[in-house]
Every structure is written in C-alpha cells, then in structure tokens.
Design brief:
The structure holds two protein chains of two kinds. By secondary structure, chain A is mostly helical. Chain A has two domains: 44 residues, no CATH class; 168 residues, no CATH class. Chain B is mostly helical. Chain B folds into three domains: 78 residues; 89 residues, no CATH class; 141 residues, no CATH class. In chain B, helix 1 runs antiparallel to helix 2 and helix 7 crosses helix 13. Chain B starts with a helix and ends with a helix. In chain B, 54% of the residues are buried. The chains are: A mainly alpha, B mainly alpha. Chains A and B meet through helix 1, helix 2, helix 3, helix 4 and helix 5 of A and helix 1, helix 2, helix 3, helix 4 and helix 5 of B.
Chain lengths: 243, 322
C-alpha cells in the first residue's frame, strides 16, 4: 500500500501548482524507491520509458509548416472565410468539427486532424472569426479563453469516441489481447468495435446539445461584458477576478 | 524498410535547430539553459533508437531526463515564443494569397491518408516499405515535410531556416509541456512495476457490492474513470479494473456478455482521460498550443461531457450486457 504515496505526490503536486514536469519526475522516483527499485533501475526505467514513448511527440513535425502558413496569414484567412458564412456560430462550427473528427476517426484516420494540424491553425481562428462577426466589440478576453478550451475539447471528444469504432485501433487490440490471453476467451475485435457505437452516438448528441448551450452562454457573456465595459476599468477588473 | 526511428531522428534534428536558435535569439543568460534543453532533447531522440534496440545503456537517457527536468524546474527554459507575425503582416498575407493559404494545411491530411492506405501496401520483395504499425507516424512526418515544401514554394521562401524558425516559435510556446506526455508514460510504467495498480485493485475489491448488478456495473465504470484520472491512461487502468471486477464479477458471477462490458469499460476510462492533467498530450499540450491563460482551460471545457457520458456508459452497459 505504501506505493500509493507516489499517487499522493502527484495529486498534491498538481493541487499546489508545482511545475508538472517536476511533480511527475519526483513522483516517479518516490514510487520507484517505495517499490524496492535501486537508483540505477529507476534511471533505466526513465530512459527506456522516455525512448519508448517518443511517438507521442511526433506531432511536433507539423509545427514548422503550421508556423509558416500562420506567418503568411492563415489564421486571418480562416477568419475571413468563416465571417462570410453569416449563419455560422462558434457552437455550430465546433459541433460540425466534432462530427467530422469522430467520423474520420471511426474509419481509422486518427492522424489527419489534431490539435497541431487543425485546431490551432484552422478551427480556433474560424470560431474566433465567427465570434468576432457576431459579437464585435463585445467579445471579451474570457470569451476567447472559453472558445480556445472548447476548440480543443471538440477535437478530443470526437477522436476519443470515434476511434474505438475502428477495429484496428490500439485500445481494441489491447482489450482482445489482454482478455484472450488472461481469461482464455475468444473475443472478436469487430464485436468490441460495434459496442463502441452507442456511446459514440451519445457523445455526438451530447456535444451538439452542449454547443447550442455554448452559443447561448457566449451571448450571455457578451451581454454581461458590454455592461462591464461601460463601468470604470478598475471595477471591470475587480469583477473579472471574482469569476 | 522505413521505420519510425527515421522519424525520431528527423524530429531530433529539428530540436537541435531550435537549440541553435536559442543562442541567436535570446538576449538574456537563459539562452544557455534553453539551448541545453532543446539540444539534449534532440540528442535524446536519436539516442533513444539505441535504447529501444538495447544496444546502449538506458540510464544515460535517464540522467538526461533528470537534467531536462532540473532545467525546467529552476526556470532556465525560455517559453516566450518571441515576436510572431504582426496583424499587418497577417492581413497582407491573406490579401495576397487568399484561400491558397489552406493548401499546405490540407496537404497534411491528404499525405497522411495516402500513407496509411496506399503507401502502406507497397512491398519491396517480401518486406513492406513502411514498417508495420508505424505507417501513420511516418505518414504524419512526411506530410509535415511535404506541407512545408509546398508552403515554401507557394510563398517563394527559399531558405529552409524560415519554416524552422516558425516551428521554433510554436515549440517555444508549448515549452516543457512538449515532453510532459513522455514523462507521464514513464511514470505509468513506474506505477505499474511498483504495484500501484494492484494496491488500488485491492481497495476496489473491498467496495464492490456482490449482490447488486447495477452497483457492480457502476463501480466498474466509475473505477475505470478514477483509475484513468490517476494513471492518465485508460490502457493502464483496463487490466487492473477488469481483473478486479470486470471479469470475476460482471462476466462470471452475473453472466454478462463480455464484448459490450469490456468495450464500454474502456470508454468509461476515456471519460477519465478528458478530466486529468495526467493525459498531458490531450489536455495540457493543446492548452499550451492555443496559449490559454489557464492550463486547465481544456479540461474545464470537457468535464460536463465526461460526467454525462459516464452515466450514459453505466446505463448502456447495464442495459445491453445483461
């Protein structure tokens, strides 16, 4: 049970807002010692773990091209394009993106979209563009923050609850691999994939519903922001802190 | 045969470039710490090839990981991306290039799809051109390169330093969060070897209601979520929760249908992934990419969805599996 102290270190560290990298490394070292590992074994685990998980950092290869097209005005153009669609709201845009992300993930195309490839250069600027057209001067910094968070959330939710419908995805292979070898079952990967569909449909319906509410919330925030803006800057800053 | 190691070496080279920029671009003494961070990171991507092959000692990389953390922990890493393009520059670019600006961005998904389908099928003799399991990874890397080349051609940029410098701007904005996902994967391994999972499994076993089907379903799903919150990864939670409840209680004692139980159990874990900073690549890295004020902005947006979907999962499993 002592090994759970490592978990406690993580929770405390995140709560006290210590740098996450430091928290993770300290928790790793603590857990390793409590689990009876020698310093050399712990160092070896850090080395092999780091080397073995390099694939999660591969998204960094698209940063140069994304940075390049941003430099030449991609975000600006994404805004202009979307502001021509007068019916488009941030909520509808995010619902549509989540739907496309879920659909492409479900047929195994996980990597064609993502936070670096699509969310930062295209989706967030488009949502910002439609919000700017809709709210103009009333678009507050807090609304921008909510727009950023929801852009990334739409990507994650679409990807997570789409990918498991595809048969050859890691999690399904993990399920069948683990269960078949441990319990001598013969599970069909296709069966597992099919049973991911109901939750996937729930996720889609929920996101579409949430995005309608999100639009209304932005409307409210814009209205409140306009009231705040008419007060003195000091008073506005004060009420900002209370959020 | 092209393996993912080629991709890692290429990324390593890019990171070395980012390290070189630190000397040129940062006026303060932090240039040394920042340069050291990116150069060590770049070297570790190449050295990792030999660690995974077992031909070089892993502890060397372990020490590098500790040095990277120390550089970050002592505030030696500059995360200010420097001057980006001005509003005027962006407007001028949009005026000049218009919708052509989307072309390099669209090259990325097109090339990625080609690689995971057509090019993955190419065989040289009996071995595939792209090593099995790494096609999409290689595809993404090639897509990044081709996209950059198309962009350079379109914008008449001759110097490859230009896209590299733009990449540096985004990478510096992400900063140390870029390596956090890899560190968390390591922590997951350490948790596993030290027996954190088994210890938590023992606690879970005590609280499973043995006479209530609905209770057992709920504990399995909520347990998957909580475990994933702690471990940062539903894959780490699945074997433990399934050994504690999923198989012995739900499948054996209550005669449930295994396929929906395990499929929906895993998806309950994903509800945890949406809410934990431990899943840094999904939650903290995008926050850094979008330059949010709070690094928990993405998690905040996801919590309602995660909780409602957890309830959906419990009800669906209860309904369809028994």
């Amino acid at each position: 049970m002592y090994v759970l102290i490592g978990v406690l270190v993580v929770i405390l560290g995140f709560m006290l807002r210590v740098n996450a990298l430091v928290v993770v490394v300290v928790a790793g070292i603590v857990t390793g010692f409590l689990g009876g590992m020698t310093p050399l074994q712990i160092l070896n685990t850090f080395g092999t773990g780091f080397a073995g998980s390099r694939s999660v950092t591969v998204f960094a290869v698209v940063l140069p091209v994304i940075g390049l097209i941003e430099h030449f005005g991609l975000q600006e153009q994404a805004r202009r394009l979307i502001s021509k669609l007068s019916k488009m709201t941030p909520g509808w845009l995010y619902a549509l993106y989540m739907f496309i992300r879920q659909g492409t993930s479900a047929i195994g195309l996980m990597n064609i979209m993502g936070h670096a490839q699509t969310v930062r250069p295209l989706i967030y600027p488009m949502a910002l563009g439609s919000a700017e057209r809709k709210y103009g001067e009333r678009l507050t910094p807090t609304m921008r923050e909510r727009l950023k968070g929801m852009a990334a959330a739409s990507d994650n939710i679409g990807a997570f609850f789409g990918e498991d419908v595809f048969v050859a995805v890691g999690s399904i292979l993990l399920i069948t691999g683990f269960v078949d070898s441990t319990y001598k079952l013969k599970l069909d990967a296709l069966q597992i994939a099919l049973w991911a569909i109901p939750t996937g449909l729930c996720a889609l319906a929920l996101h579409v519903g949430r995005m309608r509410l999100f639009d209304r919330r932005l409307d409210r925030m814009a209205a409140e922001g306009a009231v705040q803006g008419s007060r003195t800057p000091a008073a506005a800053a004060q009420s900002e802190e209370q959020h | 045969m092209i393996t993912s190691e080629w991709v890692y070496w290429f990324i390593g080279l890019i990171f070395l470039g980012y390290g070189a920029f630190a000397f040129a671009d940062i006026p303060t003494s932090k240039r040394y710490g920042t340069a050291a961070f990116w150069i060590l990171l770049g070297l570790s991507f190449g050295y990792g090839t030999f660690v995974t092959a077992g031909t070089a000692p892993a502890w060397v990389l372990g020490i590098v990981v500790l040095i990277l953390t120390a550089l970050v922990g002592t505030g030696q890493l500059v995360t200010d991306p420097g001057k980006g393009p001005t509003q005027e520059q962006q407007r001028a670019g949009a005026d000049r290039f218009g919708n052509k600006l989307f072309v390099p961005a669209l090259v990325i998904p097109v090339v990625a799809v080609l690689f995971s389908t057509a090019i993955a099928a190419i065989m040289i003799g009996k071995t595939p051109l792209l090593a099995t399991g790494t096609q999409t990874l290689t595809g993404l890397a090639v897509a990044g390169i081709i996209g950059a080349l198309v962009g350079m051609w379109m914008f008449k940029v001759r110097n490859p330093i230009v896209p590299l410098r733009e990449g540096k701007r985004l990478a510096y904005a992400i900063g140390w969060a870029l390596v956090l996902p890899q560190m968390l994967a390591t922590l997951g391994t350490l948790f596993q070897t030290a027996g954190v999972g088994t210890a938590l499994g023992k606690i879970i076993k005590v609280i499973v209601p043995s006479n209530s089907l609905f209770g057992a379903v709920a504990v399995y799903c909520v347990g998957m979520m909580l475990f994933t919150l702690i471990m940062g990864n539903a894959f780490a939670a699945f074997p433990i929760m399934t050994a504690a409840i999923g198989y012995p209680v739900l499948v054996l004692a209550f005669h449930g249908n295994p396929a929906p139980i395990f499929a929906i159990g895993m998806l309950s874990g994903y509800c945890g992934t949406l809410m934990t900073p431990m899943a840094a690549n999904f939650n903290l890295v995008p926050a850094a990419l979008l330059e949010t004020r709070s690094k928990y902005e993405v998690i905040r947006a996801q919590i309602p969805t995660a909780l409602v979907l957890l309830v959906c999962n419990i009800l669906i499993m209860w309904w369809v599996a028994f």
